[in-house]
Amino acid sequence: MKNIESGDQAARLKRLYGDVRDIYLSDARPWVVGYSGGKDSTTALQIIWTAISALPPEKRTKTIFVISSDTLVETPVVSNYIDVSLKRIAEAAVEQSMPVITRKVVPDVDRSFWVNLIGRGYPAPSRRFRWCTERLKIEPANDFIRSRVAEFGEIIMVLGVRRQESATRAQVMSLHRIEGSRLLKHSSLLNAYVYAPIAEFSTDEVWSYLLQNASPWGNDNRDLVAMYRNAASGECPLVVDTSTPSCGNSRFGCWVCTVVERDKAMEAMIDSGEEWLTPLLEFRDKLSETQDPKRKLEFREFRRRAGGVTFIKGTDRVMPGPYTMDFRRKLLRELLETQRQVAREAPAGEAPILIHEAELQEIRRLWRTERGDWEDSVPRIVRETLGRDPDFKEPDWINEDAVAFTAEDGELLEMICSDNDVPPELVMRLLDIERASHGLKRRHAVHTRIEEAFKLEWRDYETVVAERRNALGVAWNGLAREAEVDEELELPFDGEELAR
């Protein structure tokens, strides 16, 4: 391993500290440092801190925001490490008169992983349909950056990105260079610029720096080395645009990640003694099983979220839609069971909250208003799953005044629709339209919404596929066709995706 403190390397580090101070003092633009808790972002922040702390206190006038992105489904060991680090950074900033403010950014509740996966039925993310990165990482970080731009006019993002990370990263950094400046243009945000202090560092130099320079906020960098060794992994960076590498291969990141075939980082942590993480890995593997092309229609509806049916071009194969309601209920129950198990087995103070009360409230609202969940499944599942714990305190469920139907009403509707060969989902949709417009003085849009409801596909799977085969003029065996295809291309999932 190279010694970054020896000879030319020491001189290079001295120049780097000087560059940091020059850029800091050159204008009034505040800095936003992306901190993921990994080796690269820790090195970048430590270099910034060390350089700025050498200035007289009266010159440390420009605010340095240190932000960390919490997807709410981070690997618990890493999440706990980041929480402790942010607390120490904030305390050290006060003690050392550093102009540092820490912030943790999280996705809005309606954009969270569980609200999308269980509430809306989005399938587990895959390489072809990675819907999670923008919602969970990019948007929360960018919202914070935009708010600072609105407040200060311009800001400088400090990122622990390195050219040696990949050829793509090197190309992107070169593309956004500003001639004659040490800053880069941000790839997507106006009035935001990027400073990459460790752009030329190698991996060896990163580790050498961390092991030879004590953390200014009191962390022991050897703990970081141990965490990497236990995970045999790289870090999942703070993602602020689509050019920043998202998680992939073995990495620190979300414990539910199904973009990779195997979560080698989690497996390595378990093998290193963190056995209490096993239920999380098992749940993640169950999600991954739903991506098997031959089994997708076991878990997912054949209709899209917008109500139509899409076929793969030139075939009778249906493009699956969202998870079925029955499977979503099963997922919620198993997630809560996993939370109970982890809470029993985790070390004191390390048990994570896998799904928050606000997410449960939003899932309940979506099921009730979008899917006609008249039986009000969420409170029942929560009560049946967590109610066995003596410390369980049931959420104060928000009163859904707009929902007037009950489980008994649903059973009666099912029976009547069965007798008259009418899809109960259609009748539920029509009743919801009427209920939503009840009491309005102007009801001119009601007839349009009713017409749109009738245009949706309400027939069963066999009827729809048979019609497709007749239209193609062939008699394919759908099951045989599915067995021949290893992977499908996911289309935009609903109107929201199409808008993007």
Report on the structure:
It is a single chain. This protein has helices spanning 7-25, 39-53, 76-95, 113-119, 132-152, 167-175, 203-212, 221-231, 264-271, 278-289, 296-299, 325-345, 357-370, 377-386, 407-419, 424-437, 446-455, 461-472, 478-484, 495-499; strands spanning 31-34, 64-69, 100-105, 155-158, 184-185, 192-195. With 500 residues, it is mainly α. The longest helix is centred in the first third of the chain and has 21 residues, at 132-152. It is elongated and about 85 Å long.
Summarize the structure.
Helix content is 48%, strand content 5%. The protein is mostly helical and 500 residues long.
Topology:
Blueprint: H1 7-25, E1 31-34, H2 39-53, E2 64-69, H3 76-95, E3 100-105, H4 113-119, H5 132-152, E4 155-158, H6 167-175, E5 184-185, E6 192-195, H7 203-212, H8 221-231, H9 264-271, H10 278-289, H11 296-299, H12 325-345, H13 357-370, H14 377-386, H15 407-419, H16 424-437, H17 446-455, H18 461-472, H19 478-484, H20 495-499
Strand order of the largest sheet: 3-2-1-4-6-5
What is the overall silhouette? elongated
> Helix and strand string, N-terminal first?
HEHEHEHHEHEEHHHHHHHHHHHHHH
Largest sheet: 6 strands, mixed
Which class of secondary structure composition applies to the elements? Answer: mainly alpha
State the total count of DSSP E strands.
6
What is the CA–CA distance across the termini? 45 Å
The percent range for strand residues is 5-15%
Low-confidence stretches: 233-241, 243-250, 478-492, 494-500
**Mean pLDDT level:** 83
Helicity range: 40-55%
